[in-house]
Amino acid sequence: MRLDGMETLGAVNLWLDLARGLLAKNAQLPLVDDTDIDMHPELWRGRELGDDPLRAAIDNILSRDPGDLAARFVALNAYYRLMATEIPSEIQYVNNREQVDREGVMGHLGYLVRLRDPETCRDTINIRWEVVNASAVKDYPRILALCDQLKGIVQDGERYYLRGRAHFLIALLHTWDIDESLEHWDMPLGPPVCGGPRGVWQWLDSSLLTAAGIQKMATREELTDDDRDHLRDATKFLEKALSSEWEAPATARLERLATARLDWLEAKSLFARRRG
Question: What's the rounded Cα separation, in Å, for the pair 127 and 77?
Fold first, then answer.
């Protein structure tokens, strides 16, 4: 390992120590966009000069104990933030080496996310966290598989609601005129999040879902056939949640109302196109 690789490994080992303290003081696992650990110098170098040393150091800490959540958090946190690191256009390439592009970083982040088998997630804290991680790379089948892991962990009604909520967000989040943020996928599952930005987002998400149920929200894209399939699945699971003995939250009824409204609007639009 070159000198810069040894320096990077030292920095990543420091991040690992800091991550252990961060995880110990939180009831829920921090989201992968968390910035409590200062990674900026290494991430800047990774985008500007290439991420080979960072990949080697991340592989090093993951190989020590594949089940170490602190190491997994460091890996996902580093690569999510590396993807978001902006490099000024005036910085020139060094030694004819191309900078790491966002697509390449996204691909490696997806690889890191998928290193963990969803079937190894057997509690609400880990399932909730891995749902957000899957959303970071838009791996929607993984999100749904994680929702299914809730069988036997929560009441069936709650599991149906969360599966329906996931289908609802997959179908509509990309069409709304809002920024797609990881917090939208942070399920109301397990120990509550009290205060802080994450707690505020929980309130905003409930408000967003309420607004979607009350009125048609402005969209920036048309619904696709896949979106319509997800809305039909959302309807199916939300109806199962509402008909169960579980006390469903108001958002479940409002999401169901939203899917019915969207079905009507789609049918009206299709009828108008056929008449035209």
Answer: 17
